[in-house]
Design goal:
alpha/beta; single chain; 732 residues; 10% strand; kinase; CheY-like_superfamily
Length: 732
């Protein structure tokens, strides 16, 4: 604002030494000022900022002379709009507030509404102060009722819709859009019709109703091409181009963007802006002249009783004091901001450090829990297989259940942490939706029998046999929802319904519905159940669970670009629904299947080396390997592995990672330095994503996480040994 003070001093000089330059203009009638004001508005509509500022400046001077607050306010508003359009935001803000102060004096409600709405435009669209902008719009609506000021109310509602839609908040903007659609006759102007139509287009585009969206955008542009005012047409072309690009009509999108650029160039003609800036400069000088004249008039009576020199001295001292005070305040503010910025930087570093510590803590705890769990689960299975008489032992069953429950808790915590750290990436695997759901149904049969429930499955026959997508994440979503339904249902039915929603190119959108007739969820609790660690008791019963299942479901669906819907009433059951797109491409499916096929028909006996420091895990892993009739040897650490490999050959090595003396990565590197090409599989309790890069760089062939399914381990062993032998035979 330093240029304001400069202009002020310039006019002090002119008033003291050149009084002939500031003579008052003669008084004119209200009608003449109104005509000048209208001319200024017309020039503004034609984007002739130079003429608009010139006319509004003359009208403003006359309005001051006849002391008409309404006309003063209107012309200040016109000047502010000119500067707003020219990008002079500080000047626009200054004149808007001047206009608002005189509008309050005149008590013209429609004028106050318009100026407040303009301030909203300035804050929201130009300064990106979104909350301030919307607050101004809503403040504008408070000045008048809907019937008396219908046009002003409709235009302000239009601005609110535009504001919410610009930041992508279609839900908040929808009620205001419905209002102006219902009362669109109150807008009274094709320019507003353009905005209303392309806002409707934006809404239906967001709802993926492309036909409706295209209709409204086309209507907006047809209106815009029939009038001279091009501002709203400019935005219509821009939003229509975005929509066409979104639906894949790239050529049409490019044409609309060309139209947008053409209009924008016309509206920002450099010569116009240059001439308008000169007129604006003169207008600012006139404004400060009026301020000085006002001060001089108010002080006339004081000058009559005091000597002129004394007043000048007092004013000089006062101004000097104010300047010193402002300089001191400025210095303090600068120091405070520097200190505050340092505190913010430190707080950011602390937050990042805390996030890293959290990740490391979860990783360490998961590893320390998985290692003993591997032993507990493995030994329990061995006891059940070797001693069939113990299969009905409640103690052994409880032990196995508790171990698997604790493992599920660890996996849930790891899963939610990985999603929050943006470390989950969806994979493309081929699968049959019917097979996947049947597997889920079978795996949950024990839980369904426990509460005497049935699981029914209905799959739309129009869904292709093979789809491509992340079947593991889909299975996790369905497992969580179906197991949740079974827990809260007794003597009832849980339905899994999959329908084909729509087809877009190769993408098939599947509509999933998980429905039960259990106890239901109270309306007051429905907003809480997707939060972490929240367990809502639907009855006075103690249900087990981590409180993470539905939170994981919501976040996994977010990765698919989908959301989940909930319908439930107490005593009537609950239904969850969501839509996920999957690709259907027979050629791509065949390629994926060919790549993952593994020959498991070989009856060869393989020799396996286990490198593991934990005695219990040695026992479990060796028992699993020997059960498949493989020859197995065990060493306690990396040095033992290097020693035995100098003497014997093995078909495959199972390598623990976290070992004393020398870890699995270093051991693998030394084995590779010896020229040994034997496949090495990392058998570890660490999360796979945490060690993949280091495992590959050290020379490992694959990774399997403890506890594991034996079938999965043997598939990996067979595949790697077969691949290694094929490479050897090709070289020979």
């Amino acid at each position: 604002m330093s240029y304001y003070r400069f202009y002020f001093l310039v006019f002090v000089f002119l008033n003291l030494f050149c009084p002939e330059l500031v003579a008052q203009t003669g008084s004119v009638s209200n009608e003449i000022v109104k005509d000048l004001t209208k001319e200024a508005c017309d020039f503004l509509d034609d984007t002739n900022y130079e003429k608009s500022l010139e006319k509004s400046g003359i009208a403003l001077q006359h309005a001051f002379n006849i002391k008409n607050d309404t006309l003063i306010s209107r012309n200040y508003n016109i000047i502010a709009i000119n500067f707003h359009e020219l990008g002079e935001l500080d000047k626009a803000d200054f004149f808007y507030h001047k206009a608002l102060s005189y509008a309050k004096r005149s008590n013209i409600v429609s004028l106050r509404m318009m100026i407040t709405s303009n301030l909203g435009n300035l804050c929201f669209f130009e300064r990106k102060l979104y909350r301030d902008g919307i607050a101004y719009y809503k403040e504008s609506l408070k000045f008048g009722d809907n019937s008396k000021y219908a046009e002003e109310v409709a235009i302000t509602n239009l601005n609110i819709v535009w504001s919410y839609f610009k930041i992508g908040n279609f839900k908040e903007g929808l009620p205001y859009l419905k209002y102006i659609n219902k009362n669109q006759n109150d807008l009274k102007g094709k320019s507003n019709d353009i905005a209303l139509n392309f806002l409707n287009g934006m809404y239906w585009s967001n709802e993926n109703k492309n036909d409706k969206a295209d209709k409204y955008f086309s209507k907006a542009i047809s209106y815009g091409e029939s009038i001279d005012e091009k501002t709203d047409l400019l935005y219509a072309y821009l939003e229509y181009s975005k929509f066409l690009n979104k639906i894949g009509k790239f050529e049409d999108a490019y044409k609309n963007m060309l139209s947008y650029n053409t209009i924008r160039d016309e509206m920002t003609n450099k010569e116009k802006l240059k001439r308008a800036s000169i007129a604006g400069f003169n207008l600012e000088l006139d404004e400060y002249k009026r301020q000085i004249d006002k001060i001089e008039n108010e002080k006339d009576s004081q000058y009559q009783s005091l000597k002129k020199s004394r007043i000048i001295v007092i004013l000089f001292v006062l101004i000097s004091f104010i300047l010193v005070f402002l300089i001191i305040t400025l210095i303090k503010n600068i120091k405070f901001k520097k200190k505050h910025n340092l505190e913010l930087l430190r707080a950011k570093e602390i937050a990042e450090e805390a996030s890293m510590l959290k990740t490391q803590f979860i990783s360490t705890i998961s590893h320390e829990l998985r290692t003993p769990l591997y032993g507990v689960v493995g030994i329990t299975n061995m006891l059940l297989e070797e001693h069939k008489e113990l299969s009905r032992s409640q103690h052994l069953s409880s032990l196995k259940f508790s171990a698997r429950y604790l493992l599920s808790l660890v996996n849930d915590i790891l899963q939610i942490n990985k999603i929050e750290e943006n470390k989950v990436v969806l994979e493309n695997l081929t699968f049959n939706i019917s097979d996947e759901i049947t597997m889920i149904k079978n795996s949950l049969s024990f839980l369904s029998q426990k509460n005497n429930n049935t699981i029914s499955v209905s799959i739309d026959p129009e869904i292709p046999e093979y789809l491509i997508g992340d079947k593991l994440r889909l299975a996790q979503i369905l497992m969580n929802l179906v197991s949740n339904a079974l827990k809260f249902t007794k003597d009832g039915e849980v339905e899994i319904i999959v329908k084909l929603n729509k087809i877009e190119g190769k993408m098939y959108y599947l509509d999933f519905l998980i429905k039960d007739n259990g106890v239901g969820i109270a309306i007051v609790d429905q907003g809480k159940i997707f939060e972490k660690f929240v367990q809502v008791g639907r009855k006075d019963e103690d249900y087990q669970g981590t409180g993470l299942g539905l939170s994981i479901v919501k976040r996994l669906l977010g990765l698919f670009g989908s959301t989940i819907s909930l319908k439930s009433n107490i005593g009537e059951g609950t239904s969850f629904s969501f839509v996920i797109p999957f690709e259907h491409d027979p050629q791509k499916t065949k390629k994926i299947i060919d790549e993952i096929e593994v020959d498991l028909t070989s009856s060869d006996v393989y020799k396996i080396l286990i490198v593991e420091d934990n005695l219990i895990n040695q026992l479990v892993t060796k028992k699993i390997i020997e059960k498949n009739n493989y020859i197995c040897k065990v060493v306690d650490d990396g040095f033992g592995a290097l020693e035995i490999l100098d003497k014997e050959d093995f078909d495959l090595i199972l390598m623990d990672i976290n070992m004393p003396l020398m870890n699995g990565f270093e051991t693998t590197k030394r084995i590779r330095l010896k020229g040994i090409k034997t496949p090495i599989v990392a058998l570890t309790a660490f999360d796979k994503d945490e060690i993949t890069d280091e495992a590959i760089s050290s020379g490992m062939s694959d990774i399997i996480i403890k506890p594991f399914e034996p079938v999965k381990l043997f598939k990996i062993i067979s595949y790697l040994i077969h691949e290694a032998k094929s490479e050897t035979s090709i070289k020979n």
